[in-house]
Each structure stands twice: as C-alpha cells, then as structure tokens.
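User: structure tokens for this one?
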Amino acid sequence: MATTNLVNALGAGSGVDTQALAKNLVEATRAPAKSIIDEKITRSEARISGYGVIKFNLNALKTAYAALNDLSDFTSLQAANSQPSALGVVASASAAAGNYQVNVRAVAQGQRITSDGFALSSTPLNGGSAFNLSLTVNGGTAETISVTTDTPAGVVSAINAAGKGLSAQLIQTSGATPWKIVITGAQGTAQTFTLGSTSAVNLGLPADNTSSNWLQSAQDAQMDVNGVSVTRSTNTISDVVDGLTFNLYAPTTSSTSTVGGVTTTTYTPARIDLARDTSVITAKVEALVKAYNAFEEDLKILGDRDSKVEEFGGALANDGFLRTVRSQVRSMLITESSSPGTTVKAARDVGLGFDRDGVLQLDKTRLTARLQDNFAEVAQMFTANVSGQSIYSPAAGGVAGDAVKKLDAMMRTAGVVTQQTNSAQSQVKRYKADLEKLEDQMQKLLERYTQQFAAMETVVGNSNSLRESLKGTFEGLANAYRN
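Assistant:
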C-alpha cells in the first residue's frame, strides 16, 4: 500500500513523470548487467551443445572401431561346398584360403537299444518297489542307476536324471504292448555300453547286436581330408585343419563295384574351396575413415568463432578441451598397436594416414595388399586376436579394441566429456541465479528511487502551494491599492 501511494504521488507536484523516470533509471542500471549475464548463459549453453556434438561423434567413432575390434570380425573366408548335404564347413579368422578334397566315410553315432514292449507307460515293473540298473561303458567299472518309480516312465526319468551320458525316451508303437524304452549312448565307439537290471526285473535290454532290440551300434566319424584319414568320436571336427570346423551329416556320394567277389566302395569327395572376401573388412575401415573425418570437421566448426553454423558454431573457440579431445582421438590412429605383428604394427601399415590438412585418408591398394599377404597380422593389429573383450579389461586390445575402451571411458558418467558438460550446466545455473539476484536488487533500487522522488514531489508540491498563496496575497494587495 505504501509503495502504491508513493507511485500515485509521483508527478503530483513537479509535473514531471517521475514514475517513468524511476523505471528508466532502474532499467539503465539493469540492462548492462543483465546483458553480461545473458551473454554468459548463451555461451555456456552453446558449450553444452558443443560437448553434445563431441559426444555424438565419439560415439560414432566407437561404433566404427567396434566393427573392427573382435577377431570374429575378420572371418572373411567364404566356403564353396560341392556336397553341403554331406558336411558343412565353418571358417574362423585364423583359417587360410585353399582347396580341400573331403570324403566322409562314416558319421559318428551312439549305440541305441530298445526294451521289450509294455502295456502302459505306468505298468509296474517290480511290484511297486524301487530297483537298480547296472551300467557299464566300454567294458569299464559298473555304475548304478537307481529307479525309484518302477514303471517304464520311471525308468526313463531315472536314466535321464543320472547324468551318465545316456538319453532315454518313451515311445508308443502299436499292439498290446506298445510302450518301449529307447536308450541312446554318446557318440563314438568308446561309448559302447551294456545296461541291465540288478534285480529280477527284465526290461529286455540287449547285451549285444544279436538281438532285434539292438537298434544301432556306436561308431566313430571317419573322413579323409586331402587323402589323409581322420577318425573322431564326434561329428563336429575342428582339430584337423587350423581355423576350419567340419560338421558331418552323412557319407559323401559313393559307388560300389565287385571284382572277384570283392566289393569296393569308391567315394566321390566333396570339394571345399575357401576364398577370402576382404570387401567387408575394407568397408569397415572406410567407415572408420568417414567417422573420423566427420569428427574432425565438427571440431573445426566448434573451434571457428567466425562459423555461420547455428547453435554450436564457434561454441568451443579457444577451448583447451577441444585440443585435448582432438589429440587423444588422433593418437588412437597414429600410435603403434598394443598387439603389433612383425610387418603390420600400426594403422599406417594398412594404408591409414593423414594428409597435410589433417584429413584421414585410406590407401586402398595398400590395405588390399596387406589383407592378401598379411591377413593374420592385420587382424592381430586391430584386435589382439581376441573377441568379446570387456571394455574394462586392462589386457591389450589392439588398435580397435583399445580405441573402443578409451572412447567409452571418455563418454562415461565420470568421463571427461560428461565432466565438461556438467561444469557448463552448473555455470548456467549460477548465471540464472545471478539474474534472479539482479532482479531482486533492481526491485529494491526502484523502491528507493520511488521513495526519493516521492519526497522530492512533496517538497515541490509545498513550494508550489506557497507560491500560489503568496501570489494570491500580492494580487489582493494590488487590488486594494487600486481602489
């Protein structure tokens, strides 16, 4: 109420708009101070945008490096297989290009037997009492499998739960006793087994292949690779040719002939041609070049105070952090790999280098030559010959693996980019608090001016009243003398 009365009083005596004068004086004080703070807020917000641009580019670089940081990323062999129904071939990064003639003579399989038939899957086998099975594998020591539920279904459950390398299924056939237990052993001739009851329970499980309940004998996988005979107990064979895994499905095509009562089987080998396709790797290196140059271009915009790019152009001009980031990212490409080869030791050895303007270039001819002549060393230089390495691992990761770890560290919550962003955001908060403080000061200044001008108006008003009083007195005297 007091302030309102003062405002209403302003201008009452002097005829001057002292209310507007007070506001103008306050604004004259506020404007330069507010302009300075607003400019600081604008610069800080531009810095925040600039740090966001840097983080975006660092993430793009991390993605490009991540495409080259696993040894599995360098699996570039393409396998042509003339008999894919007989076998499959998987090539790893360590495999060499070449041709192979492969005969599959036999696939590994486990022994398979079946029980006699039972009327029901719940038929009691031992009058409701538990019983034991005795298992012998490859003529070894007998092992016991306890059957707690004396039914065909209970036998299947006991065998599967025993963990002895056997698997059992209950299969319904036909007739009065359709339920049969089918038991299969592990692959390989060394896994031949005998299984029988230690009690009076007779399941009809055969002891040898003379019984009709003997469905299949155990056997090893047999194959020839370039004329060399190989025998294994499994159909997944990865220890014959370095970097190659053979998955056997069926014997390769064959023909038989009988001469003098002797039958001969002749196999037609599968032809495996392994050719290296390096185009995918080249594309990944080109993507890295593109990501780096985009990063460098944005840094130039951020550091150019004359840039016309809105929002972040020149936002980090003369900022030491800009130089630090550029230096750290550049060093990831120019320093020697943490896992160098004999010939390929750094990114420069595969054709990556900078021109005099700081633009990253790729000599594709050099890269192609290295991928052809020193493929394993190129993979080693980029990946340290590891796959799936943790970003927190202190072990060597190669050029790409180490770069992924460093870039990730820069962008974490405690990383340098986040720290710079948080610092700028804190400054914005402080500047906005300064604006609020300035407004509070200006309000108080307006009140002081209002009070001062109100006092002045009172003085001026009193003077005007005295003037008018004296004027009336003098005019009255003058009129008296005229009369």
